[in-house]
Amino acid sequence: MADEHAHEHSPLDHVIDHPTLEIPFFGELDLPEVFGIQVTRFMVMETIAALVMLAVFIPLARHAARQQVTRGRFLNIFESILVFIRDKMARPAIGHHHADQFLPYLWTVFFFVLICNLLGMIPGGASATGNINVTATLALMTLGAVIVAGVKEMGPVGFLKNLVPHMDVPWIMKPILWPLMFVIEVAGLFIRHVVLSVRLFANMLAGHIVLAVILGFTLTVSQAALYIKGPVIAASVGGVVLLSLLELFVAFLQAYIFTFLSALFIGAAVHSH
Amino acid sequence: MLRRKLSAFGPLMTFLLTLTTIWIVGGTSAFAEPLIDDAVQAVAGQEHDSHATSEGEIDILAAEPSLAIYTVTVFFLLLLLLYRFAWGPISKALEAREQSLESAFREAENARAEAAALLEQHRKQMEQVQDQVRQIMDEANRKAETAYQERLGQARADAEATVERATREISAAKEQAVADLYERSADLAVAVAGQVLRREIAGEEHRRLIEVASQELQAVGPNGRGGLS
How many CA atoms lie within 13 A of A210 on its CB side? Predict the structure, then answer.
């Protein structure tokens, strides 16, 4: 059994999408095809993340609407994070008035990314944010929010004009420099969001690959003598525990970074340079 | 109400429309993937190539349009549901709580200032009252002292007057007594003289009697005052 696993094992096997769902101590569950589309593990994980969010925030909203003071550790944790995102990320980055308009998006994206990240840390789970398709979609939504924010604030032409920062150059240089800057800034706008998606994807992917590789050592030495495989297994399990703690931190950090950068991009779009 | 709700959903709708446009222009998810593919290959570079060659069929950058579309769907459903049932009420509740906290703090501050002012006022009043009490006590003490002195003086004067009157009465009584005594003596002398005159007295005898009588008289009235009466 172990031999078979060792033969099949590849660190990347754990981070790519599968049409199966892994259930601890039970085995692999084949996922069905719905309307000709194969349901995959990441789709299930996203659904779980969405359901978790609904299960947490709707009761929180009910509670908050009913009572002046939020009671209980559980609800307070989430509420303080919401307030943190509003007061320390959205409002400083976007400005008070506009921030509240985009707050629902930022709140949703933060918790969606966070829960997707964290789902990779539980047995049988997987990080949907470790897939470029997911992060690219999320980054595209931020891009959409940026464009909406900019166009709403300054109009389509104003938004494009606002991309180019004010240049303190002689008037004769402007006709040459301005188009150049415009092209650079438009490219920059897209590159920013590509990098936004790659940052999250690469971080989550790398973390899981590293964990898989280190845990893979145990399978590699499974045929070796006890005095060899004992220390190796101990070291790799210890390493995985420590790195998992790091991953836990990274899960929060990346959700924070993704949300904060989204807020910064939106803020840059609504303010003239 | 409906209008407000619609305007609240305004940015969201625009957002959705923009995304759909981007989606359509990009040709489903193929828009993002090649661009990102290139970028990631440029960034990840070597690593990705080595993985791709060594692992063969596993491609971490494989485009999965169904997953991308599913992500959009799930995300927007989630956004809409949470917007309607969670974020809106939470935002409102947070705002309401902040306002109530602010007003509570302000009211508490006002109440504190008022209490301090009242306390100060109270303290001043207490001091005034104490001053008044002290004045009243002093006044009362002074009056009592004066009254005591007056009474004492009166009593002393009365006593002296009484003593004087008594002395006067005593001396008056004594004089009266002396006067009475003289009168009685004179009467007695007259009576004795009458008895003597009724008898036949010889020359010698007569002279001796007069001498005795005058001597007696002299002995009774030492000042010679009652001699004639």
Answer: 15
The answer to whether the Cβ–Cβ distance between B18 and A144 falls below 8 Å is yes
d(Cα A107, Cα A260) in Å, to the nearest integer?
A: 11
**ipTM more than 0.90?**
no
Q: What is the pTM of this model?
A: 0.67
> What pLDDT was estimated at residue A65?
79
The Cα A63–Cα B80 span in angstroms is: 20
**Over 80: is that where the pLDDT of A69 sits?**
no
DSSP 8-state code for residue A131: S
Q: Are A235 and A41 in contact (CB under 8 A)?
A: no
CA A61, CA B86: separation in Å to the nearest integer? 5
Lowest mean pLDDT among A67-81, A186-200, A246-260: A67-81
Provide, as residue numbers in chain A, all residues whose Cβ is less than 8 Å from the Cβ of B18.
144, 147-148, 151
Count residue pairs from A and B with Cβ separation < 8 A. 172
Are A211 and A125 contacting, i.e. CB atoms less than 8 angstroms apart? no
CA angle B22/B25/B29 to nearest 5° reads 70
Rounded CA separation A202/A101 (Å): 30
Measure A205 CA to nearest chain B CA, in Å: 9
Query: Which of A140, A146, A133 has its CA nearest to residue A185?
Result: A146
Q: Do A61 and B77 touch (CB under 8 A)?
A: no
User: Is the CB of A136 less than 8 angstroms away from the CB of B68?
Assistant: yes
Output the DSSP codes for A228-273: HHHHHHHHHHHHHHHHHHHHHHHHHHHHHHHHHHHHHHHHHHHS--
Tell me which chain B residue has its CA closest to the CA of residue A69: B97
Q: What residues of B are in contact with residue A147 (Cβ under 8 Å)? A: 18
pLDDT digits (tens, 9 = 90+) for A35-44: 777 788 888 8
